[in-house]
Design brief:
The protein is mostly beta strands. It has helices spanning about 35-45, 310-315, 465-470, and strands at about 25-30, 50, 55-70, 70-80, 85-90, 95-100, 110, 135-140, 145-155, 170-175, 185-195, 200, 215-220, 220-225, 235, 240-250, 255-260, 265-270, 275-280, 285, 290-295, 305-310, 320-325, 355-365, 375-380, 390, 395-405, 410-415, 420-425, 425-435, 435-440, 445-450, 455-460, 470-475. The structure holds copper (II) ion (CU).
Length: about 475
């Protein structure tokens, strides 16, 4: 399918979610028979229980995904597509979503970046129910805050590279304000993913990794949405258009850096949250789970590749062709001028409020050795021994000082909250709101968390293998 909103799947009319439902919306009565009436009489009034069809239905099932002609992946997905159906929800309007699990293992869906009660957040560690195999579980919540969110499996995968985020179980979830912001001519949603993972001992492949390092995942293919570069419909644009790209890194473990040659990308939101300083960049970095909303002024007619800046990434399929109207020829790639990434340029100058308390988190690796799995610790402990990671009091502001004392990247994600990035390395910043922040190797990041959403909340690395191997903890409320 196409990456462009000109195509049906991502061009759902902006309508009431009730009409957009994948199931016909019905009402039916339960218990209106004799027993129901008798009970009603006993209570002194008529008694009926009304059950409704959900606003949306997601079905988890095996899926054959054709990334390119003859290149078929056996995976799992939602409603038979990768990504799953776009959920465009209205801020503040409650929705019910039925999740049907037609696979042979229990699974669960997390609503990433939303403020959802722990019981509906889609993390079993917080108390959300698993969707048992062969069964249906209804999740009901009120979507907020506005912005580019997403949903994905929050199951453990461990050694199984067909499960959870190694699979096609992810989709966009956009929470829309009640008024349209406008300001662009076309909207394009692109979710990046890596496929066909294998566990490898890196020291068998190249020089450099420490000899005691454990297994890492290497992938054979990648895609934007459901197609490898060059094998899907191009994104079709016209000169003079302002195009909004909503970009998501749905990869289980891989960072990506993207560019569109000849064009600058103006970042207007990170993780769905409007940034205080819009900046135009040549390259966009996204760690797993991160999103960026970027505006591109289409002022360089041609046929271009929007894709990963590393040649091997594009060779694997990480990219999509961007084609101007009335332009023909081979898609062009030019190496971008620079690829440095600095979160703080999107923040504001100025002070952040003084926190009520400071908390320290230290992330370390226990190397697994050749052929073994690396383990991860937070303050010396691995999940579930990390619990509780820390306990917050409602209304207080916590400065969490995170130190990555390992040679790996870690995109750290906090559920059910948006945090303010206050320092990256030695660079202070303010009002940069995120739910996931990448920590490069041997680095520090400081975030402020306002304790405004009581209930257990997971904090974990969004690399599936790190999360599965101990890099996770529960933040609790008093
Ligand atoms: Cu990690």
């Amino acid at each position: 399918m196409s990456a462009s909103l000109d195509r049906p799947r991502f061009d759902l009319p902006r309508q009431d979610p009730v009409q957009a439902s994948w199931m016909p919306r019905r009402r039916f009565l339960i218990g209106a028979g004799a027993a129901g009436m008798a009970l009603g009489t006993a209570l002194g009034k008529a008694y009926t229980q009304v059950a409704t069809a959900p606003d949306y239905s997601l079905r988890i099932a095996p899926l054959r995904l054709e990334l390119a002609p003859g290149r078929v992946i056996e995976t799992f997905g939602y409603n038979g597509t990768v990504p799953g159906p776009l959920l465009r929800l209205r801020e503040g309007r409650q929705v019910s979503i039925d999740i049907r699990n037609d696979t042979d293992v229990d699974d669960i869906i997390h609503w990433h970046g939303l403020y959802v009660p722990s019981a509906a957040d889609g993390a079993m560690e917080e108390g959300s129910p698993m969707v048992k195999r062969g069964e249906t579980q209804r999740y009901t919540f009120t979507p907020r805050p506005i912005g580019t969110r997403w949903y994905h499996s929050h199951d453990m995968a461990h050694a199984d590279l067909t499960r959870s985020l190694y699979s096609g179980m992810y989709g966009f979830l956009i929470v829309e304000p009640s008024r349209e912001p406008g300001g662009y001519d076309q909207e394009v949603l692109l979710a990046a993913h890596h496929w066909e993972g294998k566990w490898v001992s890196m020291q068998d492949i190249r020089q450099g990794p420490p000899p005691d390092n454990g297994l890492e995942v290497m992938y054979a293919s990648a895609s934007f949405n459901d197609r490898m570069l060059g094998h899907g419909e191009p994104v079709r644009v016209r000169e003079g258009q302002r195009v909004l790209f909503r970009l998501l890194n749905a990869s289980a473990t891989e960072n990506i850096t993207l560019a569109l040659p000849g064009h600058r990308l103006t970042v207007i939101a990170l993780d769905g949250n409007v940034v205080p300083s819009q900046r135009s960049v040549d390259t966009l970095f996204l760690a797993p789970a991160e999103r960026a909303d970027v505006i591109v002024d289409m002022n360089r007619p041609g046929v271009w590749i929007l894709g990963g800046i590393r040649d091997e990434d594009r060779k694997m399929g990480l990219g999509v062709v961007v084609e101007y109207a009335n332009q023909r020829g081979e898609p062009q790639w030019l190496a971008p001028p620079s690829s440095a990434w600095d979160y703080t340029i999107f923040g504001a100058d100025g002070r952040v409020p003084a926190p009520d308390e400071h908390l320290d988190l230290l992330f370390e690796k226990i190397p697994g050795g050749r052929g073994g799995f690396n383990r991860w610790t937070i303050n010396g402990k691995s999940w579930p021994n990390t619990n509780p990671l820390f306990t917050m009091e409602r209304g207080k502001r916590y400065r969490v000082i995170m130190k990555n004392d390992s040679g790996d990247n870690h995109p750290v994600h906090l559920h059910r909250h948006t945090f303010e990035v206050t320092k990256v390395g030695d660079k202070p910043t303010a009002r940069l709101m995120k739910d996931t922040i990448n920590m490069v190797r041997y680095s520090t990041v400081e975030i402020d968390v306002l304790a405004d959403d009581p209930g257990p909340s997971l904090l974990h690395c969004h690399h599936q293998d790190h999360q599965d191997e101990g890099f996770m903890g529960l933040v609790t409320y008093l």
